[in-house]
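Task card 7
Instruction: Convert sequence to C-alpha cells.
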Amino acid sequence: MPIKILPDEVASQIAAGEVVERASSVVKELLENAIDAGATRISIRVLDAGKRLIEVSDDGKGINRSELELAVTRHATSKLTCADDLFHIRTLGFRGEALASMGSVSRMTMTSHNSQETSGSKIVVEGGKIVSIETTGVPIGTVVSVNDLFYNTPARLKFLKRDQTERQQIETLVTRYALAYPHLALQLEMDGKQTFRSTGNGDRREILAQLYGFEIARGLLEVTFEDENIKITGFISPISVTRSNRKEITFFVNGRWIQDIGLATALVRAYQTYLMVGRYPISLLNIELEPEEVDVNVHPAKAEVRFKQPDVLFSMVQRAVKRALLAYSPVPQMNPAQWQTNISNHQPEPAWMNARLNWEAERQAGNNQTFLNPKTEINNTEPTTDGIEQSHIPLLRLVGQIGSTYLVAEGPDGLYLIDQHAAHERVLFEKMSQHSQAIISQALLHPEVVQFSPQSSRLISESLEILNQYGFVVEEFGLNTYRIAAIPALFSNGNAQAALRCIVEDFEEDETPLQGMLAEKLIARICKRMAVKGGQTLSAQEQSALLSDLEKCTSPRTCPHGRPTMIHLSVDLLERQFGRRGARSM
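Output:
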C-alpha cells in the first residue's frame, strides 16, 4: 500500500488512545487541570462507570472566552513556552493534549467563567469537531462534561473492564489525590450516590480514617525527612498492619501520583526482617525535589517519571522509612507472666490474654477416657455443603497444650496434634452454617460505627443481606459508614468491627474450597477472624471444650479454607520411629 497521511479524525483518535485509556484517565486529567487552575473545591459526578457521563466542576480561575476554542485544540497549553521548560515543570499538566483527546472520543461540553469577565462561555465538541461556542451565565470556575465516552470508537468501548472495576479505579484515583492535597475539598458522586467527600481542612489523618478506619489511621506512623534538596513526608503503617499486595503503597512526586517499582522496592526493603514474606505495608509518601531532578515527560499518561539521581533518592526513602519505624516501634518488652504455662483455676490470668470465649460446658470426665474400637470408627467420606469431604475422627483424650498454639490428644490409633486456631475456625463455621436459620443475635451495649473506603463500602453494602441472615444487625449510617447493632451470640466476646472489616480486607489463604459460594466464603472469613488465635493460652476446660466441639463437626480435619486442623501420628509410625517394630521381629 502507498504511504499517505492519515486523516485528522483518525490521527486524533489514535493520539487520544495514549491519554484516554479508560474513564479514570478522563477523571485524572480533569482533576489535575482543576488543581493547576488553583481550585479549592472540586466536584466529580460519574454515571454508568463513566461511559455515560463524567463531569468535573471546580472553582478555579477559569478560562477566557477568547482562549476557549484554543483550549480544546491539540498541543495548546499555557504551561510551556519552549522545550527547556520541560525540565522546570511545577504543574501537573503540560502537554496540552487532554481536552483535545477527550473531545475526539466523546461528546464534550465545557463551560468556564474567568473572574476578569462579566459572563461565562460554553463550548461543545463532538468527535473532535467544535459544534458551538456561546455565552452563558455560570459561576467563576470551570465545568467539563464528558458524555458518551468512546461512542465513536466502539472497539475501545468493548475493551473496558467491568463497571465495578472502572468505578474502583475512579474511587482510588480521587482518594489518592485527596490525600496528596488535603487542603482541597473533593467530592465524588457515583450514579447519584455520594461515595467520597473530603472537607479540605488540611488534616490527612481525617482522610486516612475514611479509607482505612479510625484505628488504623490513628496508628499510622508519620514520616518527616529532609536532606539536601529532597523532602519526604507522609505516613506508613506499623509492622502490625500489612496487606498481601503492593496496592496500598502510594507515592507522590511534587504532587503528582506516580508508579515507580524502584521507590516501592526501597520502601519494602526498609521493612526487611520486620514483615513476613509476601506481606506489604500501607504507605503514603510525598517526595518534594527540584523539578530539574525529575523528568516527567516519559509516559503519555504521566504515571511514570525518571530521576536524575535514582540511587540517592531510593536510599533516602529507605532511611526515612527506617527512621520512622525505629522511632515509633520500639522493641516490645516481654511480660514474665507470658512464660507461665500452667494456670491454676484459682490464679488470675495474665492481662494480655484474650477474653474468655463462650465455650460449651466441659465434657464429662468419663467421656475423656472413652475410646471407640478402631474397627467401629467411621472412615467413610461424603460431600458436605462447603465442598469439603466429610471425615469423622474418633473420640480423643486431651493430653495438653504445646506452645500456646497446638493441642495434644490421644486416640485409639495414635497421637493427634491439633492446631487450635484452625480447629476453632471449623467449629465456628459449622455452627454458623448448620444453624443459620436459628442463630441468636446478641445486641451490643454500645452500637459500633465503622467507616470504610468507597471501594470497601460497596462490598459491605452488597453483603448486608447475608450478614443480617447470619445474626448480624448492620445498617448504613452515613457516607461509607455502617452501624453494628448486634452480632451473633456465638461471637459475643469478639471484636464486632474486626468481624466486619475482614469481609473487605485482603485474604492470605486459598479460598478454593469455597469457590462460588458467596455466603459460605463470607462466613468463613468472619470465623477466621473471630477464632481463637495461635499463641493464646487456653485453660484445661477451654482445651477440652474445643476438642469436644471438633469431634462433633462433620468435616473436622480441615478448616473452611482447606487447611488441616490436625496431624495424626499413628501407633505404627511411633513404633517404627522408636525401633520397637524391629525389636519384636527378633
